[in-house]
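fyi for ur records
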Amino acid sequence: MSGYDHVASGYDHKEAEVRRMLDAPRPSVPPELAARAAERGMRLLRRRRALRRVGWVLLTAAVVAFCVWAAVTEPWAAPPEGTTPPLRHW
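which gave:
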């Protein structure tokens, strides 16, 4: 017996099981199942679109807020140099 005999027998077993399942009577499907599935799919699609829009709005608001903060505080500018107090009684 070669090392591949058990693989072939497992394949034959799976094929026989699939054939048995296909030959069995199929369960009845509710007539409104397609309509319910389409409705659920549309609901999920609307939810994804809404979440994507909210995400873009939040990202845009964050970018605008960062630009306003950067324009007001100018973090790229060097801080003002400290001056020494005037010398008195020299």
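Helices lie at 5-23, 33-73. thats all i got for now
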